[in-house]
Please model this.
Amino acid sequence: MGAAVLIPFEKHSGLAERLVVSRATEVNGSVWIETIVQKNCFLHIRGNLDGDLTIEPGASVVVDGSINGRIANQGGRLVVHDKWLTASVTLEGPAEREADAILKINLTAIAFNWETLAKRTDAECAVVVKCNAYGCGISPVADALAKSGCQTFFVADLSEARRVRAVAPSSTIYVLHGFFPGAGPCFAEANARPIINSAIELAAWDRFVASTRWNGGYALNVDTGKNGLGLSVEEIAALATRINVPNHGITLLMSTLTDPEGARGPQTERQIGLMRGLRRLYPCIPTSLASSSAILRNPNCHFDLVRAGSELLGINPIPGSPNPMLPVIEVSARIVQIRDKFLESVQGFGNARRIAFLSVGHADGFPRPTPPNSMLHVLVGGHRCPVAGPASLDLLPIDITDLPDMRAAAVGEMATLIGSEITIDEVAAARDMTGAEVLSGLGNRFHRIYYAT
Model:
């Protein structure tokens, strides 16, 4: 790429109508004019961008402040390091006019959902953003949550820990997959804390700390239920003497509810009792048991820290009740073909049906409905249209025969697969899946739009 051209604040302000970036360029200050970053070029603005921004294919833009103009991302990359959420940010993916499907993610709704759960408890409300924030993009999601006040994050592995650390430099990060020999330097570099799940992991961690004098902390995971993951209650009790050692490093004692909804059944009450007993053996060590549903259903299991998960993305934490979470994502796909088909009925007669094919399929996480008599719908022109058959790798057939206005289903028009009217929970029920599985299955071919309202 070569050396970057450094443009001082005074050189571009008020002297031109447009800034065209034709090679690697850095701007010390804010930009108030329309900016075009040409193909494969790089622009770093150390300030705000108040003019419109066009990013041509292969270009990369970093803005340290906010963006207040319109953004046209034609296939480049945009990173915004703003202390507040920006009005509209488009990140990686094909250009919108070239993409077959679009995934919109409302960062304001994510922040609202976290605040809703945080207000329902006196404990610290941490978040679980594993599996790339359940397919929604760990960096922008963690960034929005950190800016909203979240201080503790749980991730699956070290690669996710690094991505959270980049957007939340002062946060506490726990790695769910634990510790393995040789991983110590990576934990230290990312300033992340392993969740210890076995005596073998704990021994490996002790060796690393002893050899490097690393003073980072770790969590002890105890199996109080039936999931088989974590140290046994007896092992945790035997390890309690470690807290008498200076710089013991234990920063959290945690477990997972067998019933994630936190219903007040015998098993949940048994787990609460076990955690209360262990808490007495580990005075002054924060304790965590509850997930999103339990935050709302059962305050007895809140302890010191609760862990909000995929419900932050709009999934109903209390199935069967009104959803207190705002919808977060919208998935839409382009109509690419229309065919008239003659379908046989069960009586042996046939009906002519008009079938539209959407540009999503197995590769994008949309297989056929599976439960008996289930019906999956999509929204076309504001009307619900049933899915007409199983998806292929990249096509999904829908029945548009009963649309009142066929112009809404013209080739090139968009249909909504998930949104405020067709929820994640509805799609999950039609496919015999959980909402988290639906989200995590979304593919990487979407044009992604992250925005705040």
